[in-house]
Amino acid sequence: MATIKLTDSLRTEYSDLFDSCVIDAGRRSEVDALVGVIAAARSRYESVGQPLGVPWPFIGVVHSMEASLRFTTHLHNGDSLKARTVQVPKGYPKGGAPPFTWEFSATDALRLKRLDAWSEWTLAGMLYKLEEYNGFGYRQYHPDVLSPYLWGFSNHHTAGKYVADGTWSSTAKTKQCGAAVLLRRMAENGTIRFDADGKVAAGGASPTVGTVVPLIRYSTTRESALAAQLQALLNVFPGVFVQVDGIPGKRTSDAVRQVTGQYLAGDPRA
After folding, report:
1. I need a surface site. Which of 85, 139, 156, 255 has the fewest CB within 10 A?
2. DSSP secondary structure string, 6-34?
3. 220-269, pLDDT tens digit by residue?
4. What's residue 184's pLDDT?
5. Burial profile 135-159: b = 16 or more Cβ within 10 angstroms, e = fewer
């Protein structure tokens, strides 16, 4: 059971961090490679996720974090499908008999985490459940360090990491791409898009103001590729003229209001 609740404040934190996330330049090709593998396996993730109501990108990034994208291992923890899990959580799946199919085991892992009972599959809801999947130890015991499970390979992680269960290092840096960073790159390159409610949109339609706005939070200083994409989309509308500088400040928020009727999230006028 979660010990941290998904409050409005935490939703705002996740949104701000996602919007300001910048992938480490030296890791971008590695991140792109991971995203490519996840995208190629979409149908397998959907076959497991759709009956449970879990979005396929969520399963894909968990698969990367927990099993290095191998379909020969348990989604629970990366142990071999030839037997029940031996690491924590140990002894899963409880039902069936080994060797297990990846789909059978993945379904068990998602149900074990009660993800089939979760309904808030917005961006913030996904980031919350991803952090919970790994545990809230960083947030509870090292609140000055953002979880590398989410933010590894980005500007949000410099140092500080659990190097083993219960063993903390203030100098260690993760060697694994974070789950939020994978989602960020998937949004940047169009692998996934978010609808007006902040949920992963179905299909592969071209981005629109309505699909990009939920990813952007008002800022007069912070630059992002997604904000630049939004500005370019806004300029298509008659009478809208916004500089494409990637900074979603007052003029961008004014244009969003002109097109959608609402300011950007975080705008003090909203």
Report:
1. 139
2. --HHHHHHHHHHHHH--B-GGGHHHHHHH
3. 998 776 788 788 889 889 889 998 888 999 999 999 999 999 999 999 99
4. 93
5. eeebbeeeeebbbbbbbbbbebbee
What's the mean per-residue pLDDT of the chain? 92
Tokens of 217: 């939070």
Query: Which two three-digit tokens encode residue 220?
Result: 């007069």
Type of residue at 95: G
Q: Do the beta carbons of residue 63 and residue 75 sit within 8 Å?
A: yes
Q: Is the pLDDT of residue 86 over 60?
A: yes
d(CA 131, CA 234): 33
Lookup: tokens for 157: 């992680």
CA atoms in the 13 A half-sphere facing the CB of 159: 4
Tell me which residue has tokens 């959580």: 89
Grouping H, G, I as helix, E, B as strand and the rest as coil, residue 80 is: strand
The secondary structure element, H or E, covering residue 64 is helix 56-67
- pTM of this prediction? 0.78
User: Is 81 within 8 Å of 102 (Cβ atoms)?
Assistant: yes
158-205 pLDDT, tens digit per residue, is: 999 988 877 899 999 999 999 999 999 998 888 888 876 788 887 655
The one-letter amino acid code at 7 reads T
What torsion, rounded to 10 degrees, do the Cα atoms 232, 238, 243, 248 define?
-70
| Residues paired with 199 in a beta bridge | 122
State how far the Cα of 256 lies from the Cα of 97, in Å rounded to an integer: 55
What type of residue sits at position 261? G
Q: Which residues pair with 161 in a beta bridge?
A: 169
Of 201, 155, 203, 207, give the one whose Cα is nearest residue 178: 155
